[in-house]
Amino acid sequence: MPHPTRRTIILTGLATAGASLFPGAAVALDTTQASALVMQVADEITRIINSGQSENAMIRDFERMMVRYGDMPTIAQSVLGPPARSASAGQISAFAEAFQGYMARKYGRRFREFVGGTVTVTGAQDTGRYVEVLSTVSMPSQGPFEVRFRVWDRSGRPLFIDLLIEGVSLVISERAEIGSLLDRNGGSVDATTAALRNLG
């Protein structure tokens, strides 16, 4: 599995299901609400990074943050792709739980590399299916780069559904990873879920 790059680590916990992979409906939230959510999550990431906790404690906090701010059921369906259509609600729920743990472990272990990083919101636009919040991420050891957060409220409150780092969707990237894992497990959602619990 490809090793996480520096630019994906600090924000990957915010990556959730790609709205382009699901039927869209007009969003009720506005750009101000979506921007506020981005700032709230950025503050939470900063708190975790600078908490001085053990690695395991940071990973647990990272996973809790994902559950709080990400539309996890939508994540599960998106990254599973076609097998999600025939999976039961219980299988989707189990996969979503395994996936969030995998993401927390995969990226959370490298949190300490990003002490001093900042996220600055620079704008937002309503696309009709989600609000896309533009931001600039600055790290002490490299130049700034653009991240676009996609937010919707189809689950009843504003949640992240994807983010693009310099145009690359993390959801689509993870869908490719999960697709490979499904192939290695004969297309079985249950076997893939079990394997995912041991990855990251």
How would you describe this structure to a colleague?
With 200 residues, the chain is α+β, with helices and mostly antiparallel strands. It is built from seven helices and five strands; from the N terminus they run H-H-H-H-H-E-E-E-E-E-H-H. The chain has helices spanning 6-9, 31-49, 55-69, 72-80, 89-108, 170-184, 189-196; strands at 118-126, 131-139, 142-152, 159-165, 168-169. A five-stranded antiparallel beta sheet has the order 1-2-3-4-5. A hairpin with a 6-residue loop joins strand 3 (142-152) and strand 4. Helix 2 packs antiparallel against helix 3, helix 3 (55-69) packs across helix 5 (89-108) and helix 5 (89-108) packs parallel to helix 7 (189-196). It starts with 5 loop residues before the first helix and ends with a helix. 40% of the residues are buried. The model is unreliable at 1-26 (pLDDT under 50).
Summarize the topology:
Layout: H1 6-9, H2 31-49, H3 55-69, H4 72-80, H5 89-108, E1 118-126, E2 131-139, E3 142-152, E4 159-165, E5 168-169, H6 170-184, H7 189-196
Antiparallel strand pairs: 1-2, 2-3, 3-4, 4-5
Rg is 16 Å
Low-confidence stretches: 1-26
SSE order, one letter for each helix or strand: HHHHHEEEEEHH
Secondary structure category = alpha+beta
What is the average per-residue confidence, as pLDDT, rounded to a whole number?
82
Terminal CA distance reads 9 Å
Residue share in β-strands: 15-25%
Shape: globular
Number of helices: 7
Total strand segments: 5
Helix content: 40-55%
What is the spatial order of strands in the main beta sheet? Answer: 1-2-3-4-5
The major beta sheet can be summarized as:
5 strands, antiparallel
